[in-house]
Amino acid sequence: MSKKLVIIGGGAAGPSAAAEARRGDPSLKVSILEKGAFVSYSA
Ligand SMILES: Cc1cc2nc3c(=O)[nH]c(=O)nc-3n(C[C@H](O)[C@H](O)[C@H](O)COP(=O)(O)OP(=O)(O)OC[C@H]3O[C@@H](n4cnc5c(N)ncnc54)[C@H](O)[C@@H]3O)c2cc1C
Question: Using a 6 Å cutoff on CB, does residue 42 contact ligand 1?
Fold first, then answer.
């Protein structure tokens, strides 16, 4: 069973962390929870 990673916050750091985690483990299931209307708006 593949591992799951949940990231809170979709600003700059969240998507960067998601990409880095997937590079390390391509089978990782990554979810990003963002309370605002936009994702990665500050990157
Ligand atoms: C006025 C201002 C101008 C700036 N201008 C620049 C610039 O021109 N260039 C530059 O490089 N940097 C700029 N910065 C800095 C840049 O915005 C930050 O360095 C960067 O946004 C930090 O990213 P972060 O992902 O760490 O945090 P954030 O961008 O704060 O992202 C955190 C995210 O988490 C979400 N969140 C919080 N709590 C929850 C929750 N409970 N559930 C779900 N989601 C949640 C928030 O909605 C947010 O989207 C500026 C900052 C400010 C304040």
Answer: yes
